[in-house]
Amino acid sequence: MKRVFDITCAVLILVLSAPVLIIVAVLIRRHDGGPVFYVAERMKTPKQPFDLIKFRTMSNVEASQNAGVTGGDKSDRITPIGRILRRFRLDELPQAINVLRGDMSIVGPRPPLRQYTDAFPDLYTCVLRSRPGITGLATLHYHRHEERLISRATTPEETETIYTRRCIPRKAALDLIYQRHASVCFDIVILWRTIARVLGR
User: Fold this and answer.
1) What b/e string do you get for 32-61 counting C-beta neighbours within 10 Å, with b at 16 or more?
2) Bridge partners, residue 49, by sequence
3) pLDDT tens digits along 46-78
């Protein structure tokens, strides 16, 4: 039932948001150049990676400068269009393609970078028993707080410290609560509340 729900939602997202997807792609191409999409490795399980698809929201740099999460130390690289996309989470719409591929679910833990599954293998072995999602319980209840925490960081090292010590454990705890109560009905509630929160912005 969950897979049917995921496929149905992903198709609806792509069909209903098609005009938005086209407009965003044109704006990024016109104002920021290519590429339009940002494709990055994320982990489906602690050992199985996949290519996550998003609209590009940051200026192009060397791959080594993209390591880790985006904190205050990288804020100057976010483009004006990228800030709008991030605020309304429009940059994540292309992840509906990942859902159709079976890499992700609509609702679940956010897919982590390999460096974090390598650093916390036991934790992510538990968390990633649930397929990664576009939104989830941790995203709904902790995402904005996480953004505030890491936005204060001024160096990559400070961002990494805040994220690994304060964000990962709290998000994992929420992801495990979701896992214990996972159902299609719970997914619908989380998805609806996510949409309401985004529209409320």
Assistant:
1) beeebebeeebbbebeebbebbbbbbbeee
2) 43
3) 999 999 999 999 987 545 556 678 887 788 889
